[in-house]
Structures are given as structure tokens and as C-alpha cells.
Amino acid sequence: MSNAIAQQRGLGAMIWDYITTVDHKKIAHLYLVSGGFFFLIGGLEAMIIRIQLMKPDNEFISAGLYNEMITMHGTTMIFLAAMPLIFALMNAVVPLQIGARDVAFPFLNSLGFWLFLFGGLLLNVSWFTGGAPDAGWTNYAPLSTTSAGHGVDYYVMGLQISGAGTLIGGINFLVTIINMRAPGMTYMRMPLFTWTTFITSVLILFAFPALTVGLFLMMFDRMFGSAFFDVTAGGNEIIWEHLFWIFGHPEVYILILPLFGAFSDIISTFSKKRLFGYSAMVFATVLIGFLGFMVWAHHMFTVGLGPIANSIFAVSTMAIAVPTGIKIFNWLFTMWGGSIKMSAAMLWSIAFIPSFTIGGMTGVMLASAAADYQYHDTYFVVGHFHYVIVGGVVFGIFAALHYWWPKMFGKVLNEKLGHLAFWPFFIGFHLTFFIQHFLGLMGMPRRYWTYFEGQSLATGNMISTVGAFLMAIGTLIFLYNIVYTAIKEPQASADPWDGRTLEWSIPSTPPFYNFKQTPLVRGLDPLWIEKMEGRKGVTPAEPLGDIHMPNASVLPFLMSLGLFIAGFGFIYQVDHNAWFIAVAVGMGLTLGSMLTRSLKDDLGYHIHKEDLVEKGDGK
Amino acid sequence: MKGWIGKLRPVFIFSVLTLFLAGCGEENLSALKPKGYGAELLLDLMVISIAIMLFVFVIVMAIYTFVLIRYRRKKGDEDYIPKQTEGNKSLEIIWTVIPILLLLILAVPTVQATFDLADEAPRSEEGSITIEVTGNQYWWHFNYPDQEVSTSQDLYIPTGERVYLDMTSSDVIHSFWVPSIAGKMDTNPGGNENTMYLEAYEEGVYWGHCAELCGESHSLMDFRVIAVSSEDYDQWISDMQNIDAEATPETQSAQDGKAAFENSCMGCHAIGNSPAGVGPNLSNFGNRTKIAGILDYNKENLVDWIMNPDEFKPGNKMQGYNVSEEEAQQIADYLMQLDHSEVTPESVSSSSEE
Amino acid sequence: MTDHTDSTSKHKIDIHKKEHKEEMIHQVISFTLMILFTFIAFGMVILEISSYFVKPVLILLAVVQVVFQLYYFMHMKNKGHTMPAMMMFSGIAVAILTIITFTTIIWW
Amino acid sequence: MSHDDVLNPKQMPHDPEKATLEGKNKFIGFWMFLGGETVLFASLFGTYLALVRSTSGENTPEHLFGLELVFIMTMLLLTSSLTSVYAMYHMKNHDFKKMQLWLGITVLLGLGFLGCEIYEFYHYIHEYGFTFRSSAFGSAFYTLVGFHGGHVVFGLSWIVALMIRNQKRGLNLYNAPKFYIASLYWHFIDVVWVFIFTVVYLMGKVG
Ligand code: HEA
Ligand code: HEA
Ligand code: CUA
Ligand SMILES: [Cu+2]
């Protein structure tokens, strides 16, 4: 029986420990490192894009490579950077916030991670095997179905595998939040980050199947000769667009909602105030999630759906501004009358409010269906979505990382360097993307490899590129901060921010079983309540007892590896039948691991209460 | 929607936009300088929406600035514990209802404009012009079915009149966009035909772009809309109808070029009316201002293009023929004298500059 | 759960057995109805009744059958199923939206 | 509750499938999964409905489909749904033998269904030359019905694996949730079939 206490037995042991771990806190580390890695790759791709567009008639990279660059930039950033970073936060924080010892499905949690990672690796292998996907991250048919080479096949297989991982992760969080809450933690006492994780998981559950089907159809068309999107055989290319956006629009709320939650927690902590309008915030989250499913066709206003459909989708899209506005105002009024501390985490959150508001407002402008005939597929749209994504999601990830870093790694990120990273990134962000709105209106379509002298687009693009470099500088300072903190900063206390929620009631970093005794929750912001009543920690809900823990397992890794191998088989069987061997080997590995999992009992093990007492804090 | 919005527009553009940029882009490329009905309608709509957004933004920023200045933690206040307010019903109602009202103000003109731009009713009237637009990787084909005239790359339309477009694609999805005259519309392959209309106010040459990613040379799939007076338009149509594809060119070089062209190029290119083709229709190639939509129009460039099209438009479909440099020179001579009409982009831009 | 004394749990088991029996009866009834609906559905098609009428009825019959499956066979009517029910309904809502789209605003 | 209790319950509780936390998690988690599957199949149905008229040549739904076989398949699958209900009934009464028996019957009925389906596909391909690649309708038909068939295969393998694995040791609190969710899966397969025979076959026949 493996012991989950990480022992310092050298690098090999540590790697093995991470490969087999089912501990949500370690899985959070895995997500963070791989998501961070992909963020750097996506950022590098963004820099190459910006360098190419720096001046008119530039030929820094070729047109074909440029299309691969934007496709991989969009795909990497959305699926392989933003999503995993969000999953890192959810894994690190949600079980602690609800007072749980573990997630509902530790094994599946690990499987979800490895599927994502192998899917992402598969996608990126395409760079080295003759060309990355080049049909845009939206992969519209028939451009994608007719794209030469195997790039799009990698897109299909890579996203299919990592998408399965995301779906599994989503179900895990749903059940964790439904079933694993500590006594007294009613739904209306859950911290906002937990709430938004919950709604996000619901969105994942209902949005990803549409992508799954879309990818299957794309796979069949490209690899097995079916005719879904092939108009010459009676197919219809618009089906892909619908399936993609039925998934794609909820996806953007999957990205932003968890960070709305993180901002809520951060803003209330650093204003020393309870979140203003808690129930309205919860309601707004649910409403955004709900409306998020009825608006996808706003990405298709120019497809020719007709004025009736366009009008309906325009109005329903605009409706989302209402719950989002509720949130913005509630954050403002949380700070109102508070005592605002400008920590680095708070700085990112403060910067988020106006940035996201601008992005949201350009969103509403886009929602105006007829006006979108001008905006659509121009840099105005690029401006819009980077404002919400970078100004919302990326700012949010930075804020949340600063906030929860002590809980994840036991040290507070250096505040000075935190501020130092913020300013170039913030200024660079506005320089890069604000000007793009005007470029769009001045007639610059998106996904343009180059533009010409004499179109008055040069100055704007130059400014935009300069801004991107500033963002890169900010990112590098942040990376430096991580290293600096690891070496120089002292161990953090359990509650460095004067926190309000349960994660701050246990040591930083928490013991692997999280809570020695399950806490009793007596209201919203349980730790704050206890502190106000003069107690040190949270009242336990049970006497000290044995703790049941799951076993580590290498099977999730093997299952994902199997699909990775089978992925190559599917991609290349078009060229040669022998590649079906890879399919067989890979699927054999995956199905064999699944069978092992299902036939071998895995009952976990117990930590005895005597051991808990001896270990004191579990440190 | 004209009226007050119309008056607001110049003021607005002047005050806000010029703040950020010296100009608003190229005269005939920018959506901010409308020269046609659609673009104007849409700019009005944008102005309404920007006004609403600015209003909201000012309010948000006012609260924001006040809060940040007033409630920032000060030295000595570290232990101060603020009042833990739960919320406020009337505030909640205010910031729910006011946005709803603002959005309604935006929704009404949005729906109106959406239906307006889809209005096909006048089309059935006598004499209305229909043009079939086909997007191809990476060029545009325009066919005037009623007049039996075809052209590529340059779309001629009369001013002050609605011209209806029936739009499809021969390969992947493209999107037809002339920012200063109208919005954009996708061209779909297969049976999903789209329609839109153009109405240009002034004579002029307007830039058009392909706005949907369609492959390597997506960014090079430019075209032009040439708006001319209705007399000139009629003139142009009749000039085009009377092209004699067999006419013998004047110079010897051009005559040789014609022979070489017929030998190597006719499989894809047509001179005279051809509702569709593998390559652009070259009937009035002598009147172009650009080669393949992007290159400056001169003989040198044309020869280069013929010898090596892939260098200028990566991935384009002009391939599989074999001509020598000399033949290319002759073909260029031939093609450049195919100027059958007095109505040309030059004639328009010179007249509109006066 | 294991700490009931023997006599009460014996009693409980009997009660439960009875409950299970009753539930089983419901399930058999719903099964019979489902079979009946299937007969009607196939019958209508074989008899070639006008399609304007048949199509909605077929859909209706399918929906009723599925309700039986969910509520009786899969116990969604029992307590402890609020979350499952909520998720199924959300899923069904998205499903309906999707299908409406695919039958209306995609051409031909 | 220690794990010895889980594997050797001295006394089975009322709802053995939900008696442990793991069981409860599986139960809720599986329902969530079914919610997702609903959207998955809806996307497939939507695609099918959008492409059902994109036929080529003779091979239209009216022409291809025969109702007799579909009727038999429907009866097999509906009955198997009932038999798996019986199995769960016996599980709740802690009667492992009978549970296994009814699960066995379920599997047999499922295999019968699968046999018919394979025959049907074979028939279309060889009699009519109607394949996955013939037309957009062909692609959509085989994909929708094939996805369902794939679910049947997976469901059957799952149930058989569970039956064999637990043959010797009987019902306990560790495997009860597994049996229960496998049966939920089986019902869901039936739910999907109800729509397939209605939307694909019956409405296809009506035209
Ligand atoms: C995190 C991601 C994210 C978020 C949160 C949003 C939020 C919104 N988006 Fe955005 N969007 C994207 C990511 C995102 N979007 C991406 C990636 C694309 C491009 C995809 C591609 O094509 O590649 C896109 C594209 C896109 C389009 C298609 C454009 C086109 O291609 O032509 C549209 C059109 O309606 C749109 C609208 C909106 C709206 C109305 C919101 C709303 O949710 C915004 C709501 C917020 C506010 C409005 C601000 C706060 C509110 C108040 C202060 C209250 C008062 C306000 C008013 C009364 C206005 N988005
Ligand atoms: C989460 C989503 C996300 C994020 C964070 C970003 C971040 C950025 N994006 Fe991107 N973007 C998209 C999602 C995102 N983008 C999508 C979906 C598209 C559409 C794609 C399509 O059309 O299909 C797009 C398209 C897009 C375009 C339009 C391309 C075109 O249409 O032709 C541009 C152009 O400026 C751009 C720029 C940037 C920039 C400058 C950043 C910056 O914020 C990046 C900042 C980060 C860095 C600068 C990293 C710094 C680090 C280093 C440089 C060190 C590297 C070191 C090592 C690797 C060791 N993006
Ligand atoms: Cu054609 Cu882009
Ligand atoms: Cu959207």
C-alpha cells in the first residue's frame, strides 16, 4: 500500500509520486505547471504573431506558418493554458473551501489531468511532424476538412483527448461540491469561488459533449471518408459551426466564471468586508450560466441565418450584460466602506474591473447583430475577446495565484516583485488591445497575415506590438518572482491575509488529509465568524477519528498514454494501414487499464487517529 | 433613425475617435467613414451603442475612483474592522433595472437595422440589379445574370441605387466585406446562398476584403467596388456586352501573346461572358488597377505574376501551365490592352477628386 | 447503519421488502404501458396514417415512454434524486435547444 | 465504516448502492454523466435530422428501413430494461443469486439486440450498397445508430465484467453501487433507443 506522504527520496521518487498521485493538491501542482508551460508557449506564439504584424508587408514568417501560429495560439491558450490553470486553482482550493478531506473521485481527478496533458502534448507534436493545424481555433469546415497534411487531424485528436479529461474533471467537481461539503456548509454558505466552480462544472458537463460530437464528425470526415461537412455529397458545413459554438460560447463563461469567484473572495478579503449582495452574486452566476447556452449564434451573425434568428440571438446576448453588471456593482460595493489593502492579488483584481467592463461593453456592441456585420472577423473582435480574456481570465489567474500561493506552496509571493510584474503587464495589455478596436473599424480583418502600406494601419499595429512586449516583460518578472520566492521568502503562516474562508484555517501547505477533524460551518465566511468570536480555529464537527484515504495509482497515466498512442494511429492510418497497430496497442493499453481498474478492488487505506495525534498539526 | 443620431455622429467621431488617432483610416476602407447606405446605418447603430457604453462606463468609473481613493487602507487603520454589510435591496434593483432599460434602447434599433439590411422587397421591382458573387480561393467572381456580363476582382455598381448580391462560394467559406459601403456577409459553398445589398452614395473606388479565414492567402483576397454614375454604369455594361473576344490586337507582341494565352491559359481564364470559371475573368483586365487584387498594375509585375504566381499569393490555384519569360511578356502586352471601356477605376477616382 | 438492533432491522427489512414489491408493481405497469405505446407507434406507421398527425403523436409517445423510464425504471421519482433530476432537465433543455436549431436554422 | 465492513456487510442496509460515501458519489456522478450524454445524443440527433434528406439515389429512409426487425429490436431492448429492473429489485432485497440471474437475462436480450443490429447493417451494406460513405444521410445514420450500438457493446461488457468479478464473493457495499450504475446506464441506452426507433425509423418511414 503506497504512502501518500511525500518522502524526499530523490527526483525519481518524486516524479513517480506525481505520476501516481491522486491527491488533489498535487494534481493542482501538475495542472499549474503544465498550464503555465502551455501559457508560455501560447505567449511565445502571440509574440511571433505580433512581430509579424509589427509593420506593413512584413515577411517575418510565411503566410502558411502564420495561420498555424494563430490556430495554435488560440487553441493552446484556451484549452491548454487557461482551462488547466483554472483547474489548478479549483483543485487547490475547492476541497479546502468546503471543508472536505478529498474530492469525490480522486482517481478520476488524476485521469482528467493526464488526459488533458497527453491531449495537449499530442496537439503540439504537430509542430514537428509536418505542420500544425491551420484552420483557426474555430476550425471551420470545409477549410478544415480540406486542409492538407495532418495538422487538423492533430487538432481533432488532441482536443478530443484533452476534452474528455475536462469533462471528467467537471463531473468530479460537481459531485465533490454536492456530496463532500462539511456539516453546516449549506449551498448558500459556500464561498463564491466554490459556487462559480460548481456552475462552471455544469457548463462543462453540457457544453463539452457538443464539441465531442463535432470532433467525432470532423474525424470521420477527415479520416474515414464520411460526408457530414462535404457539400458535394449532401453534407452541410454549417453543422460544424453550430456544434462548435454550442460548445464555444459556454466555453468562454467556463473560462471567466471561476475567476469571477476568485475575485469575489479576494476583493472581500482585502476589503475586510463580507461580499456585498452574496445571494445576488450567486443568482447572477446561475443566470449567466443559464443564458450562456442560448446565445451561441452571435458568433454566426454573418453566416446568413436570417434576420429573425439574428435578432433573437442579439437580444438574448445583450441580456447577459444584466447579471454581469450586477456582479460588477456588487464588487464595487464590497469595497465601498471597506478597508482596502493593495496587495498584489488585490491590485490585479482592481485592474480587472475597468478592463473587463470595457471588454464586456464591446461584447454588447458586438451583440448588436447588424452592427456586427461591420465588426465581425475584424480586429474589433480580437480587441473584445482579449479584453475579457486577458483583462478577466489572465488577470484573474494572476490575482488568484498571488492569493492562494501560500496555500499551494507554503510561501507568500514577494509583494514588491508582484507589483513590479503588474505594471508592465497592465500597461502593455491596454496598449496592445485597445488600439485593435480601431484597427478593426479602420478595415483590418482578423487572421490577416499582413496588411499593406498606405492603409493607415501601420501606427496602430506598431503600438500593439510594443504593448505585447511589455506584457512579456511582466510575465518574465512574475516567473522571476516564483523563483525568488522559493529561495528567499520565509514559510507562510496558515492565514497570511486575515482570510475569511475555511482554507485559511489549516496550515499552509495543508497536510495531505487536509482537515484533521472535519470543521463545523456556522455561517457564511466561517473562519471570519470564529475569529470575530475570538476563537483561533474553526470548531470541529466530529471527534478525532481514523481518516480514510485513497490509494495512489498509475492507471490514469497509462490510460491516457494509451489514447495518446492510439491518437497517432488514427491520424496516420489514412496513409498506411499498418498504423492500425498503433490504434490497437494504444486502445489495448487504455481498455486494459480500465479493466484492471474495474476488476481490482481499490478500497484505500486508513490513517489511524493515534498517528494523527502524534503528528500534531500534521506537519 | 436619422434625425438626432445623424447630428450626433460627426460630433461624436470628432470628439472621441480623433482623440486616439490622427485619422480614422483610409478614406475608402474604413467603417468609420461611411460612403453607402449600409455603412451609414451601421455607424449610426455603433454610435448609439457607444453612447450607451460610455454612459455606463462613466458611472462605473466614478464609483470605482471614489471607492479606491476614499476607502484605501491608511496607516494606523490596520486593525479597523469595517461594518459587514449584507447588501441593499434598492441598490440591487437600480443596477438591474437601469441596464435592462439601456439594453432595450439598444435592442430596438438593432432589430430594426437587422431587418432593414435583410429587406429584399424592392428587389422584385422592374430594373433592379442582381449580381452573383462567388468567392474562390483567393479571388472574387462577379456575374451579372440579367445583363450577361461577367467580371472578376472589380465589381462595378451604379451609385444611388440598391444592388442585390446573391452570394455563394466555390470552395471554402469566404466573407465579402466592403467596410465603407456595407457590412459583410459570408459566402457559403453548397446550396446555402446568402443575399445582401449595396448602395453607394458617391462615385469612387472602395476597398473590399475577404473576412473569413480561407487559407494561406486569405489576407491577400482583396477586391474593389467601383461605384459609378448610372449613365457610366449603363455605358460600362454595354461596353462589356460588346467585347469581341476574337478581336485581333494591334501590336505584333500582343498578337503573339493572344495566341500564347489561348494556348496555355484559356482552360482557366475566360475573355467575354462566363458565369463561372477556374480563374478570374480577364475580359477587362486592361482596366484593372491591381493585379490579382494586390499587386501594383504594371507590366513588370504582371510578367512576374504569370511566371510565378505562388510567390505573391501563397497557395493560390493558378498552376499547371508552362510559359517562357518571352511568352509571358507577350501575354502581358495582350492582357494589358484589354481595356474595352472608358469607364475605369481611374476615370472614377479622377472625377471624384475634383 | 450497522448498529441497528436485530429486531428493528428485521422489521425494517420487511417494510422495505414490501416497499420494493410495490415499486416493482409500478414498474411492471409502466413496462406494460411502454409496450403498448410501442405497439401504437408501430401500428400508426404501418397503417400509414397522415404524417401531419402521426409525427407529433410519435414524438409524444416517445416522450411519455422516456418519462416512464426515467421516473420508474431509473427511480427519478424517489427521494434523493433532486440533483439528478435537475441535471437531467438541464441536459434535456440544452438538448431541445440543439435539436430545434438543427431542424430550423440549418438550411435544407 | 471500515473497509472490512464494506466487503463483508454483516447487515445490508436499505439502499446498498448508496450506503457508503463512495456509493453516493458514484450515484450522483453517474447521473451527471447521463446529463452530459443527453446533450451528446441530442447533437447526434440534430445532425441526423439536418442531414436526413441528403440522400443519394434510391437509398432513402422510406426505401431502406424495414419495420419488422426494428420492432423485434425494440421489444428486446425494452424487455431487457425490465429485466435489469428486476435485477436491481433483487439487489435491494439482498438476493445476489437472483440478481445475477436477471442480469444474465438482460445480457442475453442485449446480445440479441446487438445481433439484429449487426444483421441490419450488414443487410444495408450488401443488399443496398448503403454505407457510411454513400451520402451525408449514410454518414449521419450510421453515426447515430452506431454510437448507440457502441453504448450497447460497452454496457454489455461492463455488466458481464461485473457479474464475473463478483460471482464468487456476492453482493457487498463496495460492488452494489457498481451494479446499480451499470443498470442506470442500461436504462439510459433504452431511453436513447426509444428516440432512435421513433425519430429514425418510424418517422423515416412516414417520410
Ligand atoms: C472570457 C471570455 C469571454 C467573455 C466573458 C465574453 C463576454 C461577452 N461576449 Fe465575447 N467573445 C469571446 C470571449 C468572451 N466573451 C471570444 C473568445 C470571442 C471570439 C471567438 C472567435 O471568434 O474566435 C468572443 C466573441 C464575441 C462575439 C462574436 C463577435 C464576432 O465574431 O462577430 C459576440 C457577439 O455578440 C460577443 C459578445 C459578448 C457579450 C455580450 C459578452 C457579455 O458576457 C459581457 C457582459 C459584461 C458587461 C456588459 C460589462 C459589465 C456590465 C455592466 C457594467 C452593466 C451595464 C452594462 C450595460 C447596460 C451594457 N463575444
Ligand atoms: C486564453 C486565451 C488567450 C490569451 C491569454 C491570449 C493572449 C494574447 N494574444 Fe491572443 N488569441 C486568442 C486567445 C488568447 N490570446 C484566441 C482564441 C485567438 C483567435 C485565434 C484564431 O483566430 O483562431 C487569439 C488571437 C490573437 C491575435 C489575432 C491573430 C489574428 O487574427 O491574425 C493576436 C494579435 O495580436 C493575439 C495576441 C495576443 C497577445 C499579444 C497576447 C498576450 O496577452 C500574451 C501574453 C503572454 C506572453 C507574452 C508570454 C510571455 C513569455 C515569454 C515570451 C517567454 C517565453 C519563454 C519560453 C517559452 C521559455 N491573439
Ligand atoms: Cu477568402 Cu478569406
Ligand atoms: Cu460568445
TrEMBL record, chain A:
Entry's EC annotation: 7.1.1.9
Pfam families: COX1
Record has DNA damage as a keyword: no
Predominant cellular place of this UniProt entry's protein: membrane
Pathway: Energy metabolism; oxidative phosphorylation
Keywords noted in UniProt: Cell membrane, Copper, Electron transport, Heme, Iron, Membrane, Metal-binding, Respiratory chain, Translocase, Transmembrane, Transmembrane helix, Transport
Subcellular location: Cell membrane
Domain Cytochrome oxidase subunit I profile positions: 10-522
SUPFAM superfamilies documented for this protein: Cytochrome c oxidase subunit I-like
GO terms of biological process kind: electron transport coupled proton transport; oxidative phosphorylation; respiratory electron transport chain
Example of a GO cellular component annotation carried by this entry: plasma membrane
Membrane topology: Multi-pass membrane protein
Matching InterPro entries: Cyt_c_oxase-like_su1_dom (IPR023616), Cyt_c_oxase-like_su1_sf (IPR036927), Cyt_C_Oxase_1 (IPR000883), Cyt_c_Oxase_su1_BS (IPR023615), Cyt_c_oxidase_su1_bac (IPR014241)
GO molecular function terms listed in the Swiss-Prot or TrEMBL record: cytochrome-c oxidase activity; heme binding; metal ion binding
Segments passing through the bilayer: 30-53, 73-94, 106-128, 154-180, 192-220, 243-263, 275-296, 308-333, 345-365, 385-405, 417-442, 462-483, 554-572, 578-596
Reaction catalysed by this enzyme: 4 Fe(II)-[cytochrome c] + O2 + 8 H(+)(in) = 4 Fe(III)-[cytochrome c] + 2 H2O + 4 H(+)(out)
Family to which the UniProt record says this protein belongs: Belongs to the heme-copper respiratory oxidase family.
PANTHER family found in the cross-reference section: CYTOCHROME C OXIDASE SUBUNIT 1
Record protein name field: Cytochrome c oxidase subunit 1
Automatic annotation (TrEMBL), chain B:
Organism field: Salimicrobium halophilum
Transmembrane intervals: 41-69, 90-108
GO annotations of cellular component type: plasma membrane
A Gene Ontology BP annotation from the UniProt entry: ATP synthesis coupled electron transport
Domain Cytochrome oxidase subunit II transmembrane region profile: 23-121
Keyword Nucleus: no
Domain annotation Cytochrome c: ranges: 252-339
PANTHER family: CYTOCHROME C OXIDASE SUBUNIT 2, CYTOCHROME C OXIDASE, SUBUNIT II
Record EC number: 7.1.1.9
Name of the featured protein: Cytochrome c oxidase subunit 2
SUPFAM superfamilies named in the record: Cupredoxins, Cytochrome c, Cytochrome c oxidase subunit II-like, transmembrane region
Cofactor binding note from Swiss-Prot or TrEMBL: Binds a copper A center.
Uppermost EC category: translocase
Domain of life: Bacteria
UniProtKB/TrEMBL annotation, chain C:
Taxonomic lineage: Bacteria, Bacillati, Bacillota, Bacilli, Bacillales
NCBIfam families: CoxD_Bacillus
Protein name: Cytochrome c oxidase subunit 4
Coiled coil: none
Sequence intervals crossing the membrane: 28-47, 53-73, 85-107
Subcellular localization(s) per the UniProt record: Cell membrane
Keywords: Cell membrane, Membrane, Transmembrane, Transmembrane helix
Membrane topology designation: Multi-pass membrane protein
Gene Ontology CC annotation, any one: plasma membrane
Signal peptide: none
Species this chain originates from: Salimicrobium halophilum
InterPro entries from the UniProt entry: Cyt_c_oxidase_su4_bacillaceae, Cyt_c_oxidase_su4_prok
Pfam family, one: COX4_pro
From TrEMBL, chain D:
UniProt-listed GO biological process terms: aerobic electron transport chain
Gene Ontology molecular function terms on file: cytochrome-c oxidase activity
Transmembrane segments: 28-49, 69-89, 101-122, 142-164, 184-204
UniProt topology in membrane: Multi-pass membrane protein
GO cellular component: plasma membrane
CDD domains: Ubiquinol_oxidase_III
Subcellular location per the Swiss-Prot or TrEMBL entry: Cell membrane
Domain called Heme-copper oxidase subunit III family profile: residue spans: 28-205
Entries under InterPro entries matching the protein: Cyt_c/ubiquinol_Oxase_su3 (IPR024791), Cyt_c_oxidase-like_su3 (IPR000298), Cyt_c_oxidase_su3-like_sf (IPR035973), Cyt_c_oxidase_su3_a-hlx (IPR013833), Ubiquinol_oxase_su3_dom (IPR033946)
UniProtKB keywords: Cell membrane, Membrane, Transmembrane, Transmembrane helix
PANTHER family per UniProt: CYTOCHROME C OXIDASE SUBUNIT 3 (PTHR11403:SF9), CYTOCHROME C OXIDASE SUBUNIT III (PTHR11403)
Stated family: Belongs to the cytochrome c oxidase subunit 3 family.
This protein's name: Cytochrome c oxidase subunit 3
